[in-house]
Amino acid sequence: MAEHHHHTPHCSHPQHDSHHVHEDHHDFKQVNKNYFNEHAHQYNDRPEAQELARRLGAAMIGAYPFNEDSTLVLDYACGTGLISKELASHAKCIVGVDISQNMVDQYNQSVANQGIPPEEMRAVCCDLSASPDQLDGMKFDVVVCASSYHHFPSIKKVTTALASYLKPGGSLLVSDLIKPSSAQQLFPNESRHIVAHNGGFEETDIKSAFEGAGLADFAFVTAGSAKKHGHSVQFFLASGINGVGGRA
Fold it and tell me: Residue 189's CB: how many other CB atoms inside 10 A?
């Protein structure tokens, strides 16, 4: 968001219904919800998470023509808002969505502490992959999802859900771990209960999900590197556009 405040009625008060959430047979979703509810209070205390958010946010800003006077952003699996914070000065409105209520509470408390009105930046607790049309018909210029795809059992299901919230010509930007050439596990065994994709992703995995969601102009680039659980890892930024023929 720009430093000056402006009224954004189209970004006001998206509703949610926690009863829409349906758990997968192996309840990655419920386990993740419980895990992040438990750790939300200390999530922002990790310098490495803040640095990674800066790098991935910069990559997103370079990949999409954000406009602080018009761009509406959906930040899915927003957590406490680290990515939203990086994008805030470049967008008119950001709506964060997460299945963890405690993460959402931390997000909204941080926004309130900065004096930003909820019409410009707020988070809601819901699972967009559980059922359609959960945000009062809102559509967005850009939907972002950072460092979260490895938690989702079905990236195709999530990608299709996220694409449904794009305006015609809108862009989906996803960043996560690139699968290394060696078949190494990127997460320790004690994290496997919350990580559905322990080895990261190949470009073909993400391209298939994007194309299956009807997104065009797929692109996949290296967004940066970081240390994760003692490993040096690479992050990708994937993008696709809702509708053939480029941005509206």
Answer: 8
Residue numbers of the domain that contains 214 = 28-242
For the beta carbon of residue 236, count every other beta carbon within 10 angstroms. Answer: 24
Backbone angles phi, psi at 139, to 5 degrees: -125, 150
Are 6 and 114 contacting, i.e. CB atoms less than 8 angstroms apart?
A: no
Q: Which long-range contacts (CB under 8 A, 24 or more apart) does 183-188 make?
A: 184/231, 186/150, 186/228, 186/229, 186/231, 186/233, 187/150, 187/228, 187/229, 188/229
Contacts of 236 (CB under 8 A, 6+ apart): 175, 176, 177, 178, 201, 203, 206, 220, 221, 222, 223
pTM for this model (two decimals): 0.81
pLDDT at 150: 83
CATH of the domain at 219: 3.40.50.150
pLDDT tens track for 19-42: 333 334 456 566 545 554 565 556
- Note the Cα 199 to chain centre separation in Å: 19
Residue written as token pair 């370079």: 62
Residue 176 within a domain: yes
Residues sharing a CB contact under 8 Å with residue 39, sequence separation 6 or more, in sequence order: none
Query: Please, is 219 exposed, middle or buried when counting C-beta atoms within 10 Å of its C-beta (0-12, 13-18, 19+)?
Result: middle
DSSP state of 178: B
Six-digit token string for 8: 């954004």
